[in-house]
């Protein structure tokens, strides 16, 4: 949402706002943005006036309580109050969709990614908030190369078999220089065939390939690094996890 000042209020609040800082704003007015000047998904604007109260706040200091967790452990961290970061491989990215928050009585744009790591379990990540959606859109052209991303301050959800959500303080980095990110890129390079199989299973289970129904079994042949052929029947993501474990052990 954009915030707007008019006339003498511009001078009144001069120097009050600084980029990158957080503020608590009360007693402002929320108005619809006229259709002819709307930008993107913004449909409302906050009007700041002389009666508006503005107090600078700060993001939660979570540095002393940060955990760096495996992608597939989301159900273990539901309700965790500290900072959670993950290093993940992006397998798929889907178009933006709208969700309605009953609590806030508002509609939001979100985008779903499917991520994984060395455990080979595909896990959903839902990206919220417009600045972060713009960041994600930037690396959409390289999704087919299965990029490694560093995602900060995520929140765990027990939806389905577990999923992740970004928070208002999250960031997504495509070119992280963390040692963990470098190690993940090496692992991706060494296991690209197995990851391609995971992604093929995702397409099947979402009905994106060959017109098959979701969950319909399909044979898949792959050659392991030791030259042994393995034919795998995929009927669900759980079956795929077991099959990939066998494949990687060959």
What is the radius of gyration computed over CA atoms, rounded to a whole number of angstroms?
22 Å
The computed structural class is alpha+beta
Considering the protein shown, what is the CATH homologous superfamily of the largest domain?
Nucleic acid-binding proteins
Helix-strand topology string = EHEEEEEEEEEHEEEEHHEEH
Percent in helix:
10-25%
CATH architecture of the largest domain: Beta Barrel
Distance between the termini: 53 Å
The total count of helices amounts to 5
Q: Total strand count, please? A: 16
Model description:
It is a single chain. This protein has 250 residues and is α+β, with helices and mostly antiparallel strands. It folds into three domains: 2-57, OB fold (Dihydrolipoamide Acetyltransferase, E2P) (Beta Barrel), CATH 2.40.50; 63-177, Nucleic acid-binding proteins (OB fold (Dihydrolipoamide Acetyltransferase, E2P)); 191-249, no CATH class. The protein is 21% helix and 33% strand. The protein has five helices and 16 strands. The chain has helices at residues 8-12, 130-138, 179-190, 192-205, 237-249, and strands at residues 2-5, 22-26, 29-32, 44-48, 53-57, 66-68, 83-93, 97-101, 106-116, 123-127, 148-151, 155-157, 163-165, 172-173, 218-223, 229-234. Strands 6, 7, 8, 9, 10, 11, 12, 13 and 14 form a nine-stranded mixed beta sheet that branches. It has a three-stranded mixed beta sheet with strand order 1-4-3. Strands 2-5 form a two-stranded antiparallel sheet. A hairpin with a 5-residue loop joins strand 15 and strand 16 (229-234). The chain is elongated and about 60 Å long. The chain starts with a strand and ends with a helix.
